Amino acid sequence: MTTQCPPAVLNDRLAKLFAPIATELATAESRLRSELQHREPFINELAQHSFRMSGKRLRPALLLLSASACGEVNEAHRTLAPVVEMVHTATLVHDDILDEAVVRRHADTVNARWDNQTSVLLGDYLFTHAFYLASSLDTPLGCRIIGRATNRVCEGELLQTASSGDFHLSRDSYLHIIDAKTAALCACACELGAQFADVDNKTVAAFEAYGTNLGIAFQIADDLLDIVGEEQAAGKSLGTDLTHCKMTLPLIELRDRLAPSERNELQTLCEQPTQENLVRIRDWLEDSGSLARARQTAIDYAGQAVEQIKDLCPSTGDNGTAQRHQAHQSLVELANFVINRSA
Amino acid sequence: MTTQCPPAVLNDRLAKLFAPIATELATAESRLRSELQHREPFINELAQHSFRMSGKRLRPALLLLSASACGEVNEAHRTLAPVVEMVHTATLVHDDILDEAVVRRHADTVNARWDNQTSVLLGDYLFTHAFYLASSLDTPLGCRIIGRATNRVCEGELLQTASSGDFHLSRDSYLHIIDAKTAALCACACELGAQFADVDNKTVAAFEAYGTNLGIAFQIADDLLDIVGEEQAAGKSLGTDLTHCKMTLPLIELRDRLAPSERNELQTLCEQPTQENLVRIRDWLEDSGSLARARQTAIDYAGQAVEQIKDLCPSTGDNGTAQRHQAHQSLVELANFVINRSA
């Protein structure tokens, strides 16, 4: 296994946070690339394309940092790091189908059918390849943790679909959905890192809880970026959630503090997402402090993430312990990063 | 675990073939039903709906018959039988998206988006739940066999998509595609049945090879039914393959025996699938003996399936051996059934 392939898109801040596991992350990247090679040119082209889709490599980094903070990165981690990225990429590929469907309702493109077919199958190919790779370990534990997490991701996505356009979605339901659709895979990555570093169950649970809280903070920040982020930095069109009356935390915070008549007014604006109405909603979110409150919730979850592992920080000492200390420090700082990113 | 739930749609002939494992099949059905129960009503409704989608329960039956022919059905088999059916159902759910896409190009239905989103996620939910269930065994071997087979199913489907509308698809490529998209999961079911009955590797390989050959025969028969079957018996519209210039074995047999000028004529008919042209193609397939040749190929594969396991038939003797003998006999007869079914 070579380490010549640098992780795909790492900005400077992330590169610094991932420094304690930079070599391992490059190895994971290389493994990912080689796993997705296929003798059939069509499948190879698709798989290699998917490999370039995802960007930050957050999930394998969480796995490797957790492993490193608990002890040493070993062969099991090196197998599982590309697995979690492959699963994440599969969900992205299938998410694109969902988004594309919306576009297609308005303009049925010539190759819509081909793309749709291929995207469904490519996502399935990535899911099943990830499971196959995980099953190459000596124990079914990796498959079990990944199977449960990916199943929860699907549950979260299904619940989100079911609640689509529901102005009355409760705060608890929103948090339940993002816990499943986003946090479960972050938690899974951290749990795998700790579990296969052979630490006690309490430590494994602490790293899993770190991942859950970090994932929830990450998703709230993502939902905030949809409203207030800079389009170019985010690399996608903004205000998508508002346009589809998707109730994310800022809107929920606003709605729950309004008098009934104002609440009806907000609902009308949400259900008639003209450009003018979208601007009014954004101003309302800003002026009412709803954006700030949602942001505070993200900060609280990030704080909770750090809280879970703060007592597990090894002291600086010999080389091995220094390495663990640095990885631990990166996880702490990562919690801060995910709520302050611009993309 | 109760056994009160009878398998979904079994015609009399199949019920007779499945008789040696009837109780175990009912147990698998019950397990499938309970595994797909969910506390969230929306997910529960979808999962239960998918549970009613598939019909013959061929794959769990192959697993249980193989297990029974090799020894005794045990707890591992009882876990894996619903797993293979869940994987099969996931592929059916995603196949429906592919088919639906074609319909939608012509008539974009009101709830197209909802259905599309939900179908992608439901298929993913079933895939991941199946893997999670497989990972509950003590060994990763089940996950490994299932992961590899499902990955091959996806490969086959992707290759089929890539060759869609390719009049020049070779006979070998066609066989390679159906080996992957259909036979891999049948082979997987038989392999799991034998593997977890603790027989030697040679016997496991024989049952796997039986499943491969049976699966290829099954798919050729399915492709024949698309051309010559009775629509009501098949429960789906006929001639779909011809309409989409999908090269299945009868067409390939015909094409490969034509002189260049006739071949061009056939290609023109295929590329302009008017009702009149479809009738001309069907008559041509019939008159040229291409349907008969394709049918003979299915018979040959079914014969190969039986060949793989014929020396492994236990003699009738005490009760346990009699049970094994009956299961073995059912597998032999099943090879005949799949090429003579009308749906």
TrEMBL record, chains A, B:
Alphabetic keyword roster: Magnesium, Metal-binding, Transferase
GO MF annotation: an example: metal ion binding
Family indicated by similarity: Belongs to the FPP/GGPP synthase family.
Gene that encodes the chain: ispB
Enzyme Commission code(s) on record: 2.5.1.90
Domain of life: Bacteria
Gene3D superfamilies assigned: Farnesyl Diphosphate Synthase
Protein name: Octaprenyl-diphosphate synthase
PROSITE patterns: POLYPRENYL_SYNTHASE_1, POLYPRENYL_SYNTHASE_2
InterPro entries: Isoprenoid_synthase_dom_sf (IPR008949), Polyprenyl_synt (IPR000092), Polyprenyl_synt_CS (IPR033749)
Cofactor: Mg(2+)
Biological process annotations from GO: isoprenoid biosynthetic process
